[in-house]
Write a structure and sequence with these properties.
24% helix; rod-shaped; alpha+beta
Length: 453
Amino acid sequence: MNALEGGQPSSELESAYKPLRKGEMLQATVIHVERDRVFVNLGTKSEGIVPVGELTDGAIVSAEDHVKVGDKINVVVIQTEGREGNPILSKKRADFEELWDTIVEAERQGRTLDAPVLERVKGGLVVDIGVRGFVPATHVGNGKLRNIEKYVGQTLPLKILEIDRDRRKVVLSNKNAEDEKRDEAKDNIFKEVEPGDILTGVVRRLTDYGAFVDLGGVDGLLHISEMSWARIKHPREMFKEGQEIQVMVLRLDKEIGKISLGHRQVLPDPWNLIRENYKEGQKLTIKIGRLVTGGAFVALPEGAEAFLPLSEMSVRRIRRPQDAVEEDQEVEVQIIELKPSERRMVLSIRALGGGADAGGGSSSAPSFEYDDRDGKRRTLPGKKGAKKGGRRDRDEDEFEFISGTRRGLGTISAGGATIGERLGMLKGLLRDDSTEDADETKETEATDESAEE
């Protein structure tokens, strides 16, 4: 009657006298808190009671530490009437039901959940998503990991695979969440990033030919040739796994999902210093670096490399760099070509008149002196002449001998000589060559006979 006289709406009257049902969820307002229980207003004719053990899953000493007067909470009806005639309610069961509603909705929407890993069990991992969830080992990381114990204590992104609400069972996948994350990151990169952009990434894995850099869910390849202005033998000389570095995007191939990166492009260009510190014709003392078929690379202190071609290693004709120089050997060279704009410096030992005999290589070139009186050439004292090459080498020697243009081995003083004297000089040279050819033939035959024996 008081409610009717006060103009209380009929809907409130209906709820006030509506009987409660076991398992029903209601919203309640806290009106009084005691140590072992909480009184709430349900909008019904009697107040509801929430025992302290039904407030939360965790153990609490006093209800006063968990809720306060005026709080609005959701509760589930456990009993419609207790011993005192008041309905008995549970807040923790309401929280649990709300949590399951959230899980079901996340599955329906395909949302990603973040959950800590509690323990490693047979076949996978146990995670906490409010309820205990299970992640099969085949759905951890890329699905091929063996040491999944390392994830215990970490928080993983997860996708829901299966829900059994009646059995309170949830199966999840970390692999699906990571795949989706990588796909989104890759799409963003191909949409927003252009060649020439500088990004920050983390070195994820090192190989003999380069490094894979994580750009935030998608990997790019940093080839070993793009790591430094100088040549390096292995990426570990520059980086270590887990290191954060800056890289420049060199190429993007969306069709195959390939991203090529460079690191030296974000470093100071050493050729700017080389342009200032060197000039063509300058003489240097350098240390031979890596030997290749066509010559040798030389590391410059500025952080770049110069090249010493095979043809510039000696005044004599050699077949291999090892015939003239060795790695880490110090030699005198001259800069014969310098093009900083093309990042090119070419060095020469031959330009200084040096060669295989002066370089300390594995074989020595013959050294000769020439007698202007009879035109014959003789081996310098104390040095053993090397066996001559082919007929073409002798022809070139004779041409340089007569013309006075031989470099590094001395020249003929032909000034003032008559034609007859010059012809005599040439005849003496030819006789000397014929003798050498005969000696060479005998030596070859002797070697063949020894081999047959």
